[in-house]
Amino acid sequence: MRQVIVNITPQEYFFQRTHGYYHILPATKHYGEPGFSPGITIIEDSRNTYVTNVDSVTGNEIKVDVPLAAEKIAADLLRNEDLEKMGCFVSESTKPSDRDMQGAYKTLLQTYREAVAEANMEWQRTHRYEFISDLARRGARHMGMDVEWSDDVKPKIDCPGCGERIPATVARHTCGAIIDIDRAESAGMIDGEEAKRLRKLRSGKKPKVEEEEKEKEAVQA
Fold it and tell me: Is residue 178 part of a domain?
């Protein structure tokens, strides 16, 4: 009897067995996100072929086909590949109940939290990106966690105005400091004259007003 494996995450999986090749289809989004549609994979009954002996006269292999139920195949994939922890489960139909999907999502979140916690400890110990698992990255990304080792975390700098750590892509910080003059000008955060003045300051040149004041002081002296 065929089995239906439901996947509530956008992560797909590929597995090779002696009795076949299996592709666990992904969902369109994570469960609960707009546009979500679960991934549905149908597992059919199969057969395993075993060589039991060799014919002493012909030298040909003597093979035996052993039926393999879809139920056992699905159980193998879910348990031995940890799919039960990854948001997958066996459903009675191709239209899984919301209750079953909620249960799978609860398990998935716990898996994500554990992976992120392990990644945090690994990061504190080594500060090596290559030691962070893909599972931890997916979990942090899905749960919106701001962690240093995530692929989605933007580089940060110290704000020149207040010293707060901020994303390097910010054009103007909330304290008023201008980080990216060109982008701030394009976005209308500052006018052309202010942009010109800031560029001169950062290039090491004195703004014209300051130069005129210096000249006046020199003449008066």
Answer: yes
Quick one: average pLDDT of 196-212? 70
Per the structure block, which two tokens stand in for 175? Answer: 């304290």
pTM summary value = 0.64
Say if residue 27 is in the same domain as residue 81.
yes
Q: Which residues pair with 20 in a beta bridge?
A: 17
Q: Quick check: 171 and 187 in contact, CB under 8 A?
A: yes
Q: What is the pLDDT, as a whole number, of residue 122?
A: 95
| Total tally of structural domains belonging to the chain | 3
pLDDT of 154 above 60: no
Q: Residues 45, 3: contact at Cβ < 8 Å? A: no
Question: Would you state the pLDDT for residue 219?
Answer: 47
Question: Which domain covers residue 148, as residue numbers?
Answer: 112-153
Whole-Å CA distances, 41 to 44, 60, 73, 96, 134: 10, 37, 12, 12, 23
